[in-house]
Structure formats: structure tokens, C-alpha cells
């Protein structure tokens, strides 16, 4: 249904549309605001992948239209650990884009990067992101108090992980396992 591909220059306008969504923009450290910014963001994805430890992909459907983004970052080669992040274009939400992309990029992390464990987290006031993680096979592991800060506000974070030995199906689905 969905697949991953590298971002390309033709995706710049779609990327700018996504970052006009406040929910996404206020969480990102570098928000593309112009076409040149978007092209630099796309080029940076390619450079990081070339360096080997950060792999960000466009999540697309059969029409090759960008629906979202899924990324895995190697956090420890020694321990075989990675970090998953994802977002969905606001016009595409509710279609399983984020969970599909998260599942695909996690399989990439296990198969191509030889990771053993991939972790992710979300603000606890974002139950949709919690469900995405669980639908991608991530098991809830707990709450990290006041971990994230956006602006002047701190947020508790629900943490999840998937091991290479975990099936994608079978995770308890409910807000942080509840």
C-alpha cells in the first residue's frame, strides 16, 4: 500500500505544505519556509543517509505522491540501537500513513542497518502518535517525565520500542498500553 523512497527536488512544494501545519512546525528545529529551504532540507536528507546513520524517507503511495516522512537514526552502533521519527502530511492523516511508514523504516533498520532495537517516543498529550507506534509493532515501555520542551512548556513522553525479534503485529493497541 505504502512504500518508502528518497526525497527528491520535485517534493519541495509538498514538503512546504506539510510544514505549514503548526503541529509539525513547532516541533522541528529547522523548519523550511521557502522553496530554497525545502531544497536544502531534501539535500540534507540525502547527505545524512550517505553518512550512514540517519535515513529519512518520503512515504508515498502508488501515485508517488508524498504522504509523510519516516526516519530512523542510529543512536548506538555498539548496542544496535536506533530512534524512529515520523510525520504525516496534514491532508493525509487518518489513512495509516505514519504507521505504515514507521513499520517500513523499522524493517529497513533491522534488515539494512543491522539494528536490534528501535525506540520512539511521543508527547503523552498526542494519543494519535502513540497509536501509530503501537500499530507499527512498538511496545509501550513507560513514561519519561518532562522529557521534551517546546517553547517554554515541558511535556511527558510515552516511550516505545520494537526489537528485531518482535513481530510487527501483536502490540497492545491503546494509549500507552492503557
TrEMBL record:
Record-linked InterPro entries: Acyl_CoA_acyltransferase, GNAT_dom, Ribosomal_N-acetyltransferase
TM helices/strands, residue ranges: none
GO cellular component: cytoplasm
Residues of the N-acetyltransferase domain: 2-169
Superkingdom in the source lineage: Bacteria
Pfam families in alphabetical order: Acetyltransf_3
Classification via SUPFAM superfamilies: Acyl-CoA N-acyltransferases (Nat)
GO MF entries: protein N-terminal-serine acetyltransferase activity; protein-N-terminal-alanine acetyltransferase activity
Annotated protein name in UniProt: GNAT family N-acetyltransferase
The species this protein was found in: Nocardiopsis eucommiae
Amino acid at each position: 500500500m505504502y512504500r518508502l523512497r528518497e526525497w527528491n527536488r520535485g517534493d519541495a512544494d509538498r514538503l512546504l505544505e506539510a510544514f505549514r501545519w503548526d503541529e509539525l512546525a513547532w516541533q522541528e528545529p529547522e523548519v523550511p519556509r521557502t522553496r530554497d529551504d525545502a531544497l536544502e532540507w531534501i539535500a540534507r536528507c540525502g547527505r545524512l543517509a550517505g553518512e550512514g546513520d540517519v535515513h529519512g524517507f518520503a512515504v508515498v503511495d502508488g501515485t508517488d505522491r508524498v504522504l509523510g516522512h519516516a526516519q530512523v537514526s542510529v543512536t548506538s552502533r555498539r548496542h544496535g540501537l536506533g530512534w524512529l521519527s515520523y510525520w504525516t502530511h496534514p491532508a493525509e492523516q487518518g489513512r495509516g500513513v505514519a504507521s505504515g511508514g514507521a513499520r517500513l523504516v523499522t524493517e529497513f533498520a533491522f534488515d539494512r542497518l543491522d539494528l536490534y532495537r528501535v525506540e520512539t517516543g511521543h508527547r503523552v498529550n498526542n494519543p494519535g502518535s502513540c497509536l501509530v507506534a503501537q500499530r507499527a509493532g512498538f511496545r509501550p515501555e513507560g513514561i519519561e517525565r518532562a522529557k521534551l520542551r517546546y517553547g517554554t512548556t515541558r511535556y511527558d513522553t510515552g516511550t516505545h520500542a520494537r526489537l528485531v525479534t518482535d513481530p510487527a503485529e501483536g502490540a497492545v493497541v491503546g494509549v500507552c498500553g492503557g
